[in-house]
């Protein structure tokens, strides 16, 4: 069964963590606009430099750029997509709707990952990521088994993100509440919204998402 879902939630809600689990367990393709933009910034192009400044401040990159990135990825095809960190504005949500219509795809569910702001600060300031395979860790809730070595690929290239500091996080949260949280109502009105408890332990969040998916797929396909 092909499933297309959006993971919606503030910075640190656990979108990337759950997206990676879904890739592993269901063979879906993760489309993270954050990862795509980080790849663009490390390319050293003019566009990459402009993107880096915006990201480091914690602001949103223009709709035009991110919609272009998603359009390109969707045209490559795939057996079901997880939209991680996209859409983030109403204009992006409308554009995604159009892109899915054009390619004959259906949006099955929008998983709203509910968390509180205090937990987000702890999660973001404790996060680090493997620069080689992208596995996400946390100082307290998910440390590597061996200090300084990725559990998945054995790389010692473990990094903290430039925007994972309290100042940028404040701006990222404001951007979320001003520009992204209206999408909760937008997708509720479309009958796609499925809230999960993002504060639960990681495997429990995954179970809650798993319980949502088949039901939402049935709604979307009318079965
Ligand atoms: P992006 O990379 O998308 O960052 P974000 O939305 O701020 O989300 P994060 O990646 O910070 O958090 P997450 O929800 O994935 O949490 P994670 O699983 O890592 O965007 C970065 C920037 O790019 C934006 O600020 C913007 O500038 C730009 N951008 C991106 N997309 C854009 C768009 N569409 N439009 C415009 N601009 C865009 O988890 C966090 C930590 O918590 C980890 O350490 C993890 O181990 C831990 N954790 C996860 N789940 C749990 C749990 N259940 N219990 C305990 N710990 C947990």
UniProtKB/TrEMBL annotation:
<feature type="binding site">
    <location>
        <position position="153"/>
    </location>
    <ligand>
        <name>Zn(2+)</name>
    </ligand>
</feature>
<dbReference type="GO" id="GO:0008270">
    <property type="term" value="F:zinc ion binding"/>
</dbReference>
<dbReference type="Pfam" id="PF00406">
    <property type="entry name" value="ADK"/>
</dbReference>
<feature type="region of interest" description="NMP">
    <location>
        <begin position="32"/>
        <end position="61"/>
    </location>
</feature>
<dbReference type="GO" id="GO:0005524">
    <property type="term" value="F:ATP binding"/>
</dbReference>
<dbReference type="GO" id="GO:0044209">
    <property type="term" value="P:AMP salvage"/>
</dbReference>
<feature type="binding site">
    <location>
        <position position="150"/>
    </location>
    <ligand>
        <name>Zn(2+)</name>
    </ligand>
</feature>
<feature type="binding site">
    <location>
        <position position="200"/>
    </location>
    <ligand>
        <name>ATP</name>
    </ligand>
</feature>
<feature type="binding site">
    <location>
        <begin position="136"/>
        <end position="137"/>
    </location>
    <ligand>
        <name>ATP</name>
    </ligand>
</feature>
<dbReference type="Pfam" id="PF05191">
    <property type="entry name" value="ADK_lid"/>
</dbReference>
<keyword id="KW-0545">Nucleotide biosynthesis</keyword>
<keyword id="KW-0547">Nucleotide-binding</keyword>
<feature type="binding site">
    <location>
        <position position="33"/>
    </location>
    <ligand>
        <name>AMP</name>
    </ligand>
</feature>
<keyword id="KW-0479">Metal-binding</keyword>
<dbReference type="GO" id="GO:0004017">
    <property type="term" value="F:AMP kinase activity"/>
</dbReference>
<comment type="pathway">
    <text>Purine metabolism; AMP biosynthesis via salvage pathway; AMP from ADP: step 1/1.</text>
</comment>
<comment type="subunit">
    <text>Monomer.</text>
</comment>
<dbReference type="InterPro" id="IPR033690">
    <property type="entry name" value="Adenylat_kinase_CS"/>
</dbReference>
<feature type="binding site">
    <location>
        <position position="92"/>
    </location>
    <ligand>
        <name>AMP</name>
    </ligand>
</feature>
<comment type="function">
    <text>Catalyzes the reversible transfer of the terminal phosphate group between ATP and AMP. Plays an important role in cellular energy homeostasis and in adenine nucleotide metabolism.</text>
</comment>
<dbReference type="InterPro" id="IPR000850">
    <property type="entry name" value="Adenylat/UMP-CMP_kin"/>
</dbReference>
<keyword id="KW-0067">ATP-binding</keyword>
<keyword id="KW-0862">Zinc</keyword>
<feature type="domain" description="Adenylate kinase active site lid">
    <location>
        <begin position="127"/>
        <end position="163"/>
    </location>
</feature>
<feature type="binding site">
    <location>
        <position position="161"/>
    </location>
    <ligand>
        <name>AMP</name>
    </ligand>
</feature>
<dbReference type="InterPro" id="IPR007862">
    <property type="entry name" value="Adenylate_kinase_lid-dom"/>
</dbReference>
<feature type="binding site">
    <location>
        <begin position="59"/>
        <end position="61"/>
    </location>
    <ligand>
        <name>AMP</name>
    </ligand>
</feature>
<feature type="binding site">
    <location>
        <position position="38"/>
    </location>
    <ligand>
        <name>AMP</name>
    </ligand>
</feature>
<feature type="binding site">
    <location>
        <position position="127"/>
    </location>
    <ligand>
        <name>ATP</name>
    </ligand>
</feature>
<feature type="binding site">
    <location>
        <position position="172"/>
    </location>
    <ligand>
        <name>AMP</name>
    </ligand>
</feature>
<dbReference type="InterPro" id="IPR027417">
    <property type="entry name" value="P-loop_NTPase"/>
</dbReference>
<keyword id="KW-0418">Kinase</keyword>
<feature type="binding site">
    <location>
        <begin position="12"/>
        <end position="17"/>
    </location>
    <ligand>
        <name>ATP</name>
    </ligand>
</feature>
<dbReference type="GO" id="GO:0005737">
    <property type="term" value="C:cytoplasm"/>
</dbReference>
<feature type="binding site">
    <location>
        <position position="133"/>
    </location>
    <ligand>
        <name>Zn(2+)</name>
    </ligand>
</feature>
<feature type="binding site">
    <location>
        <begin position="85"/>
        <end position="88"/>
    </location>
    <ligand>
        <name>AMP</name>
    </ligand>
</feature>
<dbReference type="InterPro" id="IPR006259">
    <property type="entry name" value="Adenyl_kin_sub"/>
</dbReference>
<keyword id="KW-0808">Transferase</keyword>
<keyword id="KW-0963">Cytoplasm</keyword>
<feature type="binding site">
    <location>
        <position position="130"/>
    </location>
    <ligand>
        <name>Zn(2+)</name>
    </ligand>
</feature>
<comment type="similarity">
    <text>Belongs to the adenylate kinase family.</text>
</comment>
<protein>
    <recommendedName>
        <fullName>Adenylate kinase</fullName>
        <ecNumber>2.7.4.3</ecNumber>
    </recommendedName>
</protein>
